[in-house]
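Lab meeting minutes (informal)
Scribe: AK
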Amino acid sequence: MSISDHNVVTIGEPREKWGPCPFRFYDRWLEDAESINLAREGWRNCKVTGTHGFVLSAKLKFTKEIIKRKDEQMWCQKSRVKWLKKGDRNSKIFHIMANGRMRSNYIEEIFVNGARISAPNLVKEGVRNFYESQFHNVTWRRPSIYGMNLKSLSAVERLCLEKPFSGVEVWEALSSCDGNKVLGPDGLNLNFVKSNWEWIQEDFMRFIHGFHEDSMIVKDLNKTFIDLIPKCSKPESMKDFRSISVVGSMYKILAKVLANRIKFVMNTIIGDYQMAFVKNPQILDSFVIVEEIIHLWKYDNKGSLLVKLDFKIAYDCVDHGFLDAMMREMGFGEKWRRWMQSCISTPMLSVLVNGSPTSEFGIERGLRQGDPLSPFLFNTLIEGLSSLFRKACNLGLISGASFGDNTGFYSSNRIWSTFVMLKES
């Protein structure tokens, strides 16, 4: 009698159907001249009428369908089986057998309201409801920002922010983007856009010039996926996931252009206490300073206080009206503020659960992590918090930590957390 050293192999049915998965463009298609030629001809022959944003969105959809059909033909030829039937298309068993793709970050079940659920429709509904409530606006009393002596833009800086967009500026923004990042709802990565900018450029420039005048973004161009990244090996509740927003390719180019403009005025409107997303200061300096101050406090007999604020939660709870009020007080022009409100208030969100998106819902508050504009807008908001602390220091209500030749409030600002250091007077 011998004992086998083989492992047990379990053969079962494919994972439960969670719903259709969105289209994804692969860089290997860029090497297929026939596919690119078909996409180019389809783009140029797509005749639709409407706003420039609507035309751009329609051409993206039409081009995507052409690439999908070409890909289905390729898989049909490569599989050499009869699995591809009418209606089966590009998403079932032959595709799994052909490429052996393994799904990562798979959600089998989660706890919702204390109950464990595993049915796909209930899991997707629970995840959607969680994020819909998170981005739902809540009315509460907020401190006034008047009389805080906020820094303000100059007239020249305000005009530079709102000047017409140029083709060179757009290309520089596009070139600086990673072309192979996670794909948004339109399914086309920026490598595709870069490689075919010659025939996409005209329609995109019409769209961005139209945005300059009317501040409008059509819904399809500002759709967003929320991708869930597990924090642990076996996530059981929504707190075990980190969310990242994945925006569409056309919106990302627009947001990158706007982000490149606002970053040049951040040093004008942001105080010396903030060290994230501003020129020259290094974010790691914040932690060194905090450690040094705590070390000095050990030899001080006076009481001291260190407050750590969770900025991840604050990131999702940004009030859009308060952001607009802050930008108005900082001297941003009306046109720029309309642009920002259009970018952050018009998206339709859906959450990817095992690769399949939930139904869409609107956003009433919060900033999308993954939007190139979000870090700079969040810094603008945090300047309001810094101003409140400085005002409290000036009124003698609190005393900031002292180090070197400086005294007063000190904050170490980054995306996830802030340290506020106070010392007893």
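Next up, CB showed the second protein from the same session:
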Amino acid sequence: MEEVKLLGAWPSPFCYRIIWALKLKGIDYEYVEEDLFNKSDLLLHYNPIHKKIPVLVHNGKPISESTVILEYIEETWPHNPLISNDDPYEKAKARFWTKFIDEKEPIFFAFFQSVGEEQEKATKEAKKVLKVIEDYGVGESRKFLGGEKVGMADLALGWISGWLEGMEEALGVKLLEPQSFPMLMAWIKNFRDVPQIRDNFPDRDQLLIYFKGLRESLTLYIRKFQFSFMVENHLQSLLLFLNIIDEMWPQNPLLLPDDPNERAIARFWMKYVDDQREQFLRFWKTTGEEQEKATRDVRNVLRVLEENGLGDKKFFGVTT
């Protein structure tokens, strides 16, 4: 009997791609919910490189990265195909749109994460992407990106059928307006009407709570970052993010120590290392006499780190 296990996390649209694919194929599987703030030994064992979900485990063999998993599912269980078996052109189109959607997702993350002028710019960029999918992907004669049946590209785009709405409501900014994107709105309805999609969809209210909480946290941190940027230089603002990480996830406080003196030492060495990066870049970029000089400068930096930074300690900035 085949063992199929999916390691995922409920807010992740990338996990739902896999859930939908398995359901469409009629594959029985065990679902393991992961706590992304306290990753399990199972996840670290099966995905030691990226340490991310989703991970599909098939007979003890792990496969990671959602689009890679979708391809694996299609090749392992070819019934109820997600990509046309017969037409190479249709296969190529499905892979093109899947790749296009994946490549453009950071634009929507920027839309959700930014404020002010940056958000206005990200909103325009996101609408341009949606317009491309509206005009060239869905089109008037196609029910889905894959034709008359849900395909791989539809699963990749599936996140706009629920997650995008949660992002819009949390921000109070509308991207998908029916008058501007009538075919995409029709696609969303068609997609949500598929039983394997409809019956395996995250709760709308829970998604909204999730995105509102995430946005509130991001807004707070963006304000802190902007204040820090005005007061300090760009490199020092990185320290703020480390503080944020320590405040948000206080377990195992490894980034900045509790002791004020040790915190100051940690900040000093972080800034020193950042300030000296240009020396290493010059060493790499230059030739001849300039490289010889850069080599000496780099060695001086390393000597300072060796003698004054580490000394007899195991790590920088700490006494333990």
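CB comment: Strands lie at 4-8, 30-33, 55-58, 61-64.
No objections, moving on.
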